[in-house]
Amino acid sequence: MASETTDLAQSAAEAGHGAAEHYVGMPQLNFEWYPNQIFWLVVTLLVIYLILTKVALPRIASVLSDRANTISNDLEQAEALKKKAVEAEEAYKKALADARAEAGRIVAEAKVEIQKDLDVAIGKADAEIAAKTAESEVAIGEIRAGAAKSIEAVARDTALEVIKSVMPGLEDAKAVAAAVKSRMKGA
Amino acid sequence: MAAEESAFNIHPMDQFVVKPLFGHDNILWYTPTNATLWMAIAVLAIILLMVMGTRGRAIVPSRSQSIAEEIYGFVYKMTEDIAGKEGLKYFPHIMTIFMFIVLANVLGLLPFSFTSTSHLAVTGTMAIAVFVSVTVIGFVKNGFRFLSLFWISAAPLPLRPILAVIEVISYFVRPVSHSIRLMGNMMAGHAVIKVFAGFAGALGVGAVAPIVAIMAVYGLEMLVTVIQAYVFTILTCVYLNDALHPGH
Hints:
The structure holds 2 protein chains of 2 kinds. Chain A is mainly α. Chain A has helices at 2-16, 34-166, 173-186. Chain A has one domain (2-186). Chain A is built from 3 helices and no strands. In chain A, helix 2 (34-166) runs antiparallel to helix 3 (173-186). Chain B is mainly alpha-helical. Chain B has one domain. In chain B, helix 1 (34-52) crosses helix 3 (91-107), helix 4 (120-142) runs antiparallel to helix 5 (160-203) and helix 4 (120-142) packs parallel to helix 6 (208-244).
């Protein structure tokens, strides 16, 4: 069959053109080549099978399971960290609320303290003011009394001088004084 | 076919010829051929991607490690979803099939490369291996209850013998469709690209349309290579599921 095929190919090549020999028909149906192809196929498949089962597949499987483990570990860790973060946030909120309450308490205390001081200070100031007012009233009374006396003296002197110049010799200091006194009382 | 027209030297099937790597001897079963070479390149690519790429064992993967992990996860999930928890025992075998097919298919898209999976010898061997393994697993795990796969208890009783015949035929046709689907897709796409490339060569500088067509078909082929690897693998899982759970 080999020589037949070659002969066919050669005759075809000779008949058609001067190029290299060409195959006639389907090379797939040349059963002469079958043992060769099947032998090398079996060798190839065995080699591939050995490479895959001895090296490639276990390696890839271990890498894949390592990755799955890493991912699940990371997820667990992330979950734990998230829990911690939530706890920390709660603690922070609690601390904040405590601090607020404490601050409110301190402010209230301070207010009470200040109010007390303020009351004392106001009381003192009121007392001082009252004392000063009384003092001032006394002083004003004195000044007023002094002023009235001075006015009387001035009026008496003036009246005496007026009488002396209008009707000399008739001046009566006592009568003038009495008259001014009565007048000022009436006024 | 080779010399229909002297203007067009299009030989779309030449790319599938198995040649010895050294000399011009006859191809014996152990002769290193271009098929050997491209299967070895597929093995190297698998080592590069699945072993070198995952060397870092990083928790945050590098790009190549990420690709290896994605493929692993994809095939693992497919096996588990379709064949169930019991099917995971065969995950390395399914992974082997998927890795080989997907890399042989994709490497076949390189210019001047040889596509191992475009040969019936390769896809047929794999399909028969899957068929035999699955049948053996089915009988070992379930004993003669495995035959309930062919006895559809949901169907009305008179129909069951007829359905059983159909089921048996379809069961034995599985390796044929399983292998020819992959090989046909690979061969057809590559042949189409080669034909358009021949047009481009014949038209010379003005070959815009064939080149656009090649680009389009190439894009489609990239899709097809991966999808066919997926289809072959998922069907393997489906057959495995039948063997593990013949009741439904």
